[in-house]
Amino acid sequence: MHRTTSIVENDFRTAVGAAVLAPSLHNSQPWRFRLAGDQVHVLTDPGRTPPVADADGWAARIACGAATYNLQLAFAVRGQPMQVQWRPVASERELVAALQPAPPRPPTPGQQRLFLAVPNRHSNRHPFRSQLVPPVARLAMIEAAAAEGAWLDLVVGRIPVAAVGEIAHAANRVLQRDVAYAAELAAWTHRDGVAVDGVPADVGGFNAGPQDLLPQRPFSDLVRMAGENVEDDPLVAVLGTIGDRPVDQLRAGYALQRVLLTITDHGLASSMLSQPIEVASAREQLRISLGRSGTPQMVLRVGYGDPASATPRRPVADVIDAPREGAE
Predict the structure, then answer these.
(1) pLDDT, tens digit (0-9, with 9 covering 90-100), for 37-86
(2) What is the β-pairing status of strands 95-101 and 39-44?
(3) pLDDT at residue number 172
(4) Which DSSP state fits 38?
(5) How sure is the predictor about 234, in pLDDT bands with cuts at 50, 70 and 90?
């Protein structure tokens, strides 16, 4: 095999810089990265997994899957493809992915476009405009999910969206009634402007009102007047997988990031609603409403929005472990 260890060492930090721009629950950034011989490892960081909201690690696996996509893409655009092996060592539970160099080749135009979207992709929690998402973008989103082994259903029309909205609102009410959950969410909401994780209140968007079809986490104190900035017919998408094992959740996050970058590449904005995924009964209701035999893994809201600020990220040095030599 072509020796690529030196390439991995030279490009590793740049690739990690792209990886950490992936989304995560409450912007908790539950990942670590390390060099291991000629491999790059992605690991979960249990110390940064919200213990109430993510007791079983689902959200951390979604986040690490998304970070793995960015990591692999960053190497690809530098002419170094990387093959991903999920959960390569059963005895090391925190190790969720190993990236192994493949023979070098130039990046495709599609890879280059998606990589350019990486720094511009972030959740936009503000109301979207009434302009409809064009068919070409809708098809591209569906194809992006399918290319990575996931499915993406578009929920179109006010009545179907309202049905999904009811499920999401019900799940949100269940979560907010949990005092520990609410306290944890508040702890990840920052108002001092110096945090490198969590969600700053000034980018948290408006709190949901009775006019909103979809719920919003209370990251900010902004409140709209009744009837103000109403999304009449937002495009809602549900991403899912056939199974729901830990490896399926990692692959779901990987596919999710490709979908999100595709959305960004088409000049669109997006935000994620995980409440109906976090509550088991709501997740099952969502699956039934879609007529799916698989497992919903994330709900997306897609549209045209005004520019929104990105959430902060920790320095790259803070997420890199010491190199591990001699790994096979």
Answers:
(1) 889 999 999 999 999 999 999 999 999 999 999 999 999 999 999 999 99
(2) antiparallel
(3) 94
(4) T
(5) confident
Which range has the worst mean pLDDT, 71-75, 103-107, 223-227? Answer: 223-227
The torsion of the CA quartet 77, 81, 85, 87, rounded to 10 degrees, works out to -40
Residues 6+ apart with CB under 8 A from 181: 52, 53, 175
The 3-state DSSP class for residue 249 equals: helix
For residue 27, give the nearest of 318, 253, 311, 316 by alpha carbon.
Answer: 311
**Tokens of residue 71, six digits:** 């990591």
Phi-psi region of 180 (alpha: psi -120 to 50; beta: other; left: phi over 0): alpha
How far apart are alpha carbons 144 and 68 in whole angstroms? 16
Name the pLDDT band for 308 (thresholds 50, 70, 90): confident
| Co-location of 73 and 41 in the same domain | yes
d(CA 260, CA 302): 9
* Pairwise CA distance, residues 14 & 159, whole Å: 45
pLDDT in tens, 109-143: 999 999 999 999 999 988 899 899 999 999 999 99
Among 120, 152, 170, the domain-final residue is 120
How long is the chain? 328
Tokens coding 159 = 């009545």
Residues 140 and 239 in one domain: yes
Contacts of 314 (CB under 8 A, 6+ apart): 20, 29, 196, 197
Q: How far, CA to CA in Å, does 96 sit from each of 44, 88, 244, 246, 260?
A: 7, 7, 15, 9, 21
Query: Phi-psi category of 291—alpha, beta or left, where left has phi over 0 and alpha has psi -120 to 50?
Result: left
On whether both 97 and 188 belong to a single domain, the answer is no
